[in-house]
Amino acid sequence: ILYAAVVKKNGEVIGNVFHVETPEGFGGTVEFLLMLNREGKVVGFEVLNHAESEGYGAEITSENYKKSVMNKVSAEKIEAISGATVTSKAMEAGFEAAFEAASKLK
């Protein structure tokens, strides 16, 4: 986790955002933002930087992948990308780090 921030709306805490840098993906590290609501569900996800292979690990930038991670409450529930085992494991580790950090912020 590069940083974590509290997100407020009208003065009320609505969740946390995490700037995550994964361990090694296939093409190197992957940086992404992850927002979790107060219940710990994924409500926002955006890849900031990656060097993953087109057609494989770069799938992490697709709308399908983004939709697949929304509302997840655990890294164990993150779907693997077919043909991109290294990238999938890196993303799972990144999500796990964010979920663990969120649990400590409660």
Please explain how this structure is put together.
- By secondary structure, the chain is α+β, with helices and mostly antiparallel strands.
- It has 2 helices and 4 strands, in the order E-E-E-E-H-H.
- The chain has a 4-stranded antiparallel β-sheet, covered by helices on one side.
- The relative contact order is 0.22.
Report, as a whole number of angstroms, the end-to-end distance: 17 Å
Task: Give me the Rg, rounded.
Answer: 13 Å
- DSSP strand count: 4
Major beta-sheet overview: 4 strands, antiparallel
- Low-confidence parts, pLDDT < 50 over ≥5 residues? none
Morphology call:
elongated
Alpha plus pi helix count? 2
So what's the oligomer here? single chain
Helical percentage: 25-40%
Mean pLDDT value: 95
Summarize this, please?
The chain has 106 residues and is an alpha+beta fold. It is built from two helices and four strands.
Task: Describe the protein's topology.
Blueprint: E1 3-9, E2 12-21, E3 31-37, E4 42-49, H1 63-69, H2 85-105
Antiparallel strand pairs: 1-2, 2-3, 3-4
Essential attributes:
about 110 residues; alpha+beta; 2 helices; about 30% strand
